[in-house]
Amino acid sequence: MSDLPTNVLLGRKLRDRGLTLVTAESCTGGLLAKVMTDIPGSSDYFRMGIVAYNNEIKSIVLDVPEEDIERYGAVSTEVAVRMASGATKISDSDIGISITGVAGPGGGTDHKPVGLAYVGVSDGVNTVAKKVAFEGDRRENRARFTEAAMILALQFLEDRLPIDV
Predict the structure, then answer these.
(1) What are phi and psi of 95, to 5 degrees?
(2) DSSP codes, 107-162
(3) 21 within a domain of the structure (yes/no)
(4) What burial letters (b/e) apply to 20-37, b meaning 16+ CB within 10 Å?
(5) CATH number at residue 98
(6) Does 78 reside within a domain?
(7) pLDDT per residue as tens digits for the range 124-150
(8) Is 108 a member of any domain?
(9) Could you tell me the pTM of the whole model?
(10) HSE (CB half, 13 Å, CA atoms) of 63?
(11) Dihedral angle over CA of 130, 134, 138, 144, nearest 10
């Protein structure tokens, strides 16, 4: 594995392949978009970031069916998949990465505790999602969710799925 940060590796992979990226985030509040645009020259591949913190926005902007949110909850594989694929469609991007979860310190339940998230990656045709769980404070959880999403995207681009993140 490279000594380079994950965001740099992902950015290079996108640039080398001539691909564009969109992010769709909930609990991370735009952190993924921030770390991807921290890289000089990221405008070569980064198209836009969407922070859909509210379920209504997930439905209106990202085309996540309200029925999916009601049935599975906003923190679910199904919603992560819809967020990633919806983001690729509305932005006309090649790759969409989504994150939805419970960063904490509140908001967790027995079934969906603080530290749980689902990350998704889509190319508009194929979409994958992965459940991740961490123990940490809000800042740590958001950083780990972001890292997990970037790792999943790298794996998606390398056709090496599934590998634990």
Answers:
(1) -130, 135
(2) ---SSS-TTEEEEEEE-SS-EEEEEEE--S-HHHHHHHHHHHHHHHHHHHHTT---
(3) yes
(4) bbbbbbbbbebbbbebbb
(5) 3.90.950.20
(6) yes
(7) 999 999 999 999 999 999 999 999 999
(8) yes
(9) 0.94
(10) 10
(11) -60
